[in-house]
């Protein structure tokens, strides 16, 4: 067993201070006393000082981290925090898109721009469990997707995206999506109307009607534009989803169609029958069918008004013919379409979209004879 050696340290009661040396009164308090401490006391003092400096440094780091965290959240709320997000990590299930699923003829221009100078304006996404929900930038996402499929270039497998902070209301996310397209002025009235209708039908929005949906989603739009959106929503309902390219409808054409269909129920049936025969493909054929329908409908109405005016003039000239001037109008569905009939004293008119001049004469005679034979039964 080793023996601990003990040392006695004796401090002189009086210390002779050489001339020119600082005395205890000339030095900071405790300096002379510190000079008399042992190695252990000095080590403890130095360790305590190091711990104090470290605590101050850690406190400064925590304060800086808090500041950076708040700044990150602030920028994230503004959509200014940008990351490169994998295309397959982006989903579109939370929001009903305000873009038609039909082919976009201008998408090639966007793709060319991206290939040439890159994406100038990142899309906006919200972080959700398992990925990201697209809020703004459906066309940009579509362009990246097509470029990746066409080229296989991994540069297009990820897209720059601004990360929105969690917690935004569903209505707020819809407003972000809608307002961007309102500013860019490249979304049709039919697409906005369809979005309002989908918003109304979505149980998560708790929207009570179309008017509320339009007012909520398009609060940034002018009053007249909101009226047009509601009118187009009515048009989409009246056509029962038969329009294949509603986004291609010009405003004036859509409003004219709505007016006709509201005023004449038979016209609605006739239009739906026409739309069912329009060949699939591009929007041109559908737009032509709609314009032809309006032109022919107005021509018929003009003839009817002229006939009514002539009948009225004859009635004024011969009051005894008022009763004889009564007329009956009806519509009848036949395999070839809807026949509009107008019967008067001594006259009957039948109108349908068919060229009767191409029908053989004997067939017309047979049809007329059958018609009058049916009347005599």
Q: Would you mind describing this structure in some detail?
A:
- There is one protein chain.
- The chain has 377 residues and is of the alpha/beta class.
- The protein has three domains: 65-184, Conserved hypothetical protein from pyrococcus furiosus pfu- 392566-001, ParB domain (Alpha-Beta Complex), CATH 3.90.1530.10; 188-307; 326-371, no CATH class.
- It is built from twelve helices and eight strands.
- The protein has helices at residues 31-35, 39-77, 107-117, 138-151, 170-184, 189-201, 210-217, 223-238, 251-263, 265-275, 283-317, 361-376; strands at 82-86, 90-91, 123-128, 131-136, 158-164, 328-334, 337-344, 347-351.
- The strands form two sheets. It has a five-stranded mixed sheet with strand order 1-5-3-4-2, sandwiched between helices. The chain has a three-stranded antiparallel sheet with strand order 6-7-8, covered by helices on one side.
- Helix 6 (189-201) packs across helix 7 (210-217), helix 6 (189-201) crosses helix 8 and helix 8 crosses helix 9.
- The longest helix is centred in the N-terminal third of the chain and has 39 residues, at 39-77.
Discrete helix count: 12
Radius of gyration: 42 Å
Percent range for helical residues? 40-55%
Characterize the biggest β-sheet.
5 strands, mixed
Name the CATH homologous superfamily of the largest domain: Conserved hypothetical protein from pyrococcus furiosus pfu- 392566-001, ParB domain
Return the CATH topology of the largest domain: Conserved hypothetical protein from pyrococcus furiosus pfu- 392566-001, ParB domain
Distance between the termini: 140 Å
Q: Return the string of H and E elements.
A: HHEEHEEHEHHHHHHHEEEH
The CATH class label of the largest domain is Alpha Beta
Count up the domains. Answer: 3
Instruction: Report the β-strand fraction as a percent range.
Output: 5-15%
Give the low-confidence spans.
none
Care to count the β-strands? 8
Named CATH architecture of the largest domain: Alpha-Beta Complex
User: What shape does the CA trace take?
Assistant: elongated
Mean pLDDT: 78
Structural class: alpha/beta
Strand order of the main beta sheet, please? 1-5-3-4-2
Domain ParB-like N-terminal: 83-182
InterPro entries: Chromosome_partition/occlusion (IPR050336), ParB/Sulfiredoxin_sf (IPR036086), ParB_N (IPR003115), RepB_N (IPR037972)
Protein name: ParB/RepB/Spo0J family partition protein
Pfam families: ParB_N (PF02195)
């Amino acid at each position: 067993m080793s023996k601990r050696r003990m040392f006695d340290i004796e401090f002189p009661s009086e210390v002779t201070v050489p001339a020119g040396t600082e005395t205890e009164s000339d030095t900071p308090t405790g300096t002379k006393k510190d000079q008399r401490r042992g190695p252990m006391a000095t080590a403890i003092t130095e360790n305590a000082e190091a711990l104090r400096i470290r605590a101050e440094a850690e406190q400064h780091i925590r304060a800086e981290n808090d500041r950076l965290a708040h700044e990150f959240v602030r920028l994230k709320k503004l959509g200014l925090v940008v990351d490169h997000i994998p295309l397959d990590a982006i989903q579109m299930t939370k929001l009903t898109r305000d873009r038609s699923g039909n082919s976009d003829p201008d998408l090639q221009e966007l793709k060319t721009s991206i290939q040439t100078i890159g994406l100038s304006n990142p899309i906006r996404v919200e972080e959700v469990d398992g990925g990201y929900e697209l809020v703004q930038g459906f066309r940009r996402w579509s362009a990246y997707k097509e470029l990746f499929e066409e080229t296989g270039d991994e540069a297009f497998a990820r897209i720059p995206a601004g990360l929105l902070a969690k917690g935004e209301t569903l209505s707020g996310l819809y407003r972000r999506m809608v307002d961007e397209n309102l500013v860019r002025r490249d979304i049709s009235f039919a697409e906005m109307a369809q979005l309002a209708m989908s918003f109304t039908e979505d149980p998560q929005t708790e929207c009570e009607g179309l008017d509320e949906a339009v007012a909520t989603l398009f609060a940034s739009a002018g009053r007249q534009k909101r009226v047009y959106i509601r009118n187009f929503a009515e048009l989409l309902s009246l056509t029962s989803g038969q329009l294949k390219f509603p986004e291609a409808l010009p405003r004036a054409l859509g409003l004219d169609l709505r007016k006709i269909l509201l005023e004449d129920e038979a016209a609605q049936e006739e239009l739906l029958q026409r739309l069912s025969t329009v060949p699939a493909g591009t929007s041109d054929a559908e737009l032509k069918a709609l314009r032809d329908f309006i032109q022919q409908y107005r021509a018929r109405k003009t003839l009817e008004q002229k006939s009514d005016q002539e009948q009225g003039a004859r009635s004024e000239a011969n009051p005894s013919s008022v009763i004889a001037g009564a007329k009956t109008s009806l519509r009848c569905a036949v395999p070839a379409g809807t026949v509009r009939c107008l019967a008067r004293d001594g006259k009957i008119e039948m109108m349908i979209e068919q060229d009767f001049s191409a029908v053989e004469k004997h067939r017309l005679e047979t049809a007329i004879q059958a018609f009058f034979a049916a009347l005599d039964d």
